[in-house]
Design goal:
The chain is an alpha/beta fold. The protein folds into two domains: about 140 residues, Rossmann fold; about 140 residues, Dihydrodipicolinate Reductase, domain 2 (2-Layer Sandwich). About 45% of the residues lie in helices and about 25% in strands. The protein is built from ten helices and eleven strands. A six-stranded parallel β-sheet has the order 3-2-1-4-5-6, with helices on both faces. Strands 8-7-9-11-10 form a five-stranded mixed β-sheet. α2 links the parallel β2 and β3. The radius of gyration is 19 Å and the shape is globular.
Length: about 290
């Protein structure tokens, strides 16, 4: 009986490299291949850890990778996942954990809906801003409903690489939709700000939620939010309330900050850390069920 589930990463950039480090310390996952489309520092980095690599992308992974690879993280781009990686992994029977805003599969925010999705062949990790804010939106909506939710994700410009910048439009669209689908707000809106400050600032997100039921006490809403933060900290230890929840009329406002674990990326890259941590948390759950099944 296997004691770990074999996994691979497509995309050897900053996100893919950080994923690799997180997978190394996983109790259920074994890093089995890094796939890219060119020789790169990320490919060399994987090789330095004796991780098999390919520069033929998803085709190389499926052709030359270990046939027992069960889960594949896609850390490329929305366009690549839509056109190449998603369809190829589906045909090969691999579970895809999509870290792009492509959203072929259902949105996954582990603290909210992972239990409903662990059998899905392709799950989408929304966006960094979505992972940081949707749990708070849901924490409010589950006790008082949510007419409208707006999130403003502010990240260090230094932590926004080419992939993030190429997907800016998809970020706002995907996050807004997931606020409604997963966060259960009637209407959602997402805004992203790249902050050029030096030294780089930690990721900070502001969440506004207009509640439906104004008869629900602020104490009950506050309790729900703090319970959600405790759940998030189980896989994102640097997640914290920068400004405690406040309520003005029917609007709840929360400001959160995310400090990364600095596995590979600097601590100020909390935006990348939280989506990677969420992806690994999702894979851990899926792998745990696979191992039980065996």
């Amino acid at each position: 009986m296997a004691d770990k589930i074999k996994v691979a990463v497509i995309g050897p950039g900053n996100i893919g490299s950080d994923l690799m480090y997180k997978i190394f310390r996983s109790k259920n996952l074994e890093m089995t291949m890094m796939a890219g489309i060119a020789e790169s520092e990320g490919i060399k980095r994987a090789q330095s850890f004796n991780v098999p690599t390919t520069i033929e992308g998803v085709n190389g992974l499926l052709k030359d990778g270990d046939p027992d690879i069960k889960i594949v993280f896609d850390a490329t781009s929305a366009a690549a996942h839509l056109k190449f990686n998603g369809p190829a992994l589906k045909e090969a029977g691999k579970i895809a954990i999509d870290l792009t805003p492509a959203a072929i599969g259902p949105y996954c925010v582990p603290t909210v809906n992972l239990d409903e999705l662990s059998a899905a062949p392709n799950i989408n990790m929304v966006t960094c801003g979505g992972q940081a804010t949707i749990p708070i939106v849901y924490a409010v909506s589950r006790v008082a409903g949510a007419k409208y939710a707006e999130i403003i994700a502010c990240i260090s410009s230094k932590s926004a690489g080419p992939g993030t910048r190429a997907n800016m439009d998809e970020f706002t669209e995907t996050t807004s939709k997931a606020i409604e689908v997963v966060g259960k707000a009637d209407k959602g809106k997402a805004i992203i700000i790249l902050n050029p400050a030096e030294p780089p600032l930690m990721m900070t997100d502001t969440i506004h939620v207009q509640v439906k039921d104004t008869n629900v006490s602020f104490e009950e809403i506050n309790k729900s939010i703090y319970e959600m933060v405790d759940e998030l900290k189980k896989y994102v230890p640097g997640y914290q309330l920068r400004v405690p929840p406040t309520m003005d009329g029917d609007r709840v406002t929360v400001i959160v900050q995310i400090e990364g674990q600095a596995d590979f990326l600097p601590a100020y890259s909390g935006n990348l850390d939280i989506i990677n941590s969420a992806a690994v948390a999702a894979a851990e759950k899926i792998a745990e069920e696979m191992l039980k099944g065996e």
